[in-house]
């Protein structure tokens, strides 16, 4: 059985998350805290956050396969799983071609990495794979508990569920901004969409598969694109947008709150999402 992450969780970069924050996430009733920003193979941050909570699931979103040795990662997984059984989900994924000097076949590298995790006894049902395109989505269903897509829309979720089939975890990330002024929301949301994602071929290719045009992904992203990828509005509007992922077949949504008041915004969103 895979780890139970609930319906909604919080996605946070490793260098921003604190033990105070993760304790609040648990108190508010979110199911999981996802650690982004390519946490290293030692998984020390995940262990520290688990120690600051009593029942919250901590997940990595994701450990970069290029930067982290799979054997070391497996040792770290076993250390944490023994201490906090059922509360850790290992998210792994490939890096970006633009950010890697020595870039072998991405697909073959993913397969080899998962082979090593298997050989080191990491249960497949405790691993999820960063996946956007059809080929890696299929692999996530075959070799892991499921997929953790990043920078996606409910339409991507619908297509992903068709590829994954039933009984496979689908946990997309989505950015949100509690701001009702569209101009102000785009001012904050556009950099979070643009940097670095609109300069990375895998994200751009995925957005084009979803129907976005060259114009949408140019010059920092069109208003249409930014509005879709960084939901803005009041708490009820944002909650409705996030539930579109669930309606499209997601099991869980990892919510990345933008802006400079995350703790306040977690409280506000919890009233719509988990109560």
TrEMBL record:
InterPro entries: Bact_Lucif_Oxidored, Lucif-like_OxRdatse_MSMEG_4141, Luciferase-like_dom, Luciferase-like_sf
GO cellular component: cytosol
Pfam families: Bac_luciferase (PF00296)
Gene3D superfamilies, A to Z: Luciferase-like domain (3.20.20.30)
Domain called Luciferase-like: residue spans: 16-102
Molecular function GO labels: oxidoreductase activity, acting on paired donors, with incorporation or reduction of molecular oxygen
Domain of life: Bacteria
NCBIfam families according to UniProt: F420_MSMEG_4141
Name of the featured protein: LLM class F420-dependent oxidoreductase
